[in-house]
């Protein structure tokens, strides 16, 4: 069983970031942003963009939970 921790981001605010959907869970990439106030997120387009960290509530989980959310058949 894969118990490595991963971080997901629950969007809680999209003010100024209208391409995000409030109450949607996004993949947060582990690479750090140049500024701690931002996180790297895969958005609706499937591309990686920087968004304000304040737009998200971080949820730490495992790959076992993440996989069905983002790689459903």
Q: Total helix count? A: 1
Order of strands in the sheet with most strands: 4-3-2-1-5
- Give average pLDDT, whole number: 82
End-to-end gap: 20 Å
Counted beta strands: 5
Global outline: globular
Poorly predicted parts: none
Question: What is the oligomeric state here?
Answer: single chain
Describe the structure.
The chain contains one helix and five strands. With 73 residues, it is mainly β. The longest helix has 8 residues, at 63-70.
Topology:
Layout: E1 5-11, E2 25-28, E3 38-42, E4 48-52, E5 56-62, H1 63-70
Antiparallel strand pairs: 1-2, 1-5, 2-3, 3-4
Brief characterization of the structure:
With 73 residues, the protein is mainly beta. 11% of the residues lie in helices and 38% in strands.
Salient structural properties:
73 residues; mainly beta; five-stranded antiparallel sheet; 1 helix; 5 strands; 38% strand
């Amino acid at each position: 069983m894969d118990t490595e921790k991963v971080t997901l981001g629950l969007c809680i605010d999209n003010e100024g970031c209208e391409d995000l959907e409030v109450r949607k869970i996004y993949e947060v990439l582990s690479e750090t942003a140049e500024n701690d106030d931002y996180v790297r997120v895969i958005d609706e387009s499937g591309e990686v963009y920087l968004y304000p960290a304040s737009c998200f509530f971080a949820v730490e989980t495992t790959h076992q939970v993440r996989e069905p959310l983002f790689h459903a058949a």
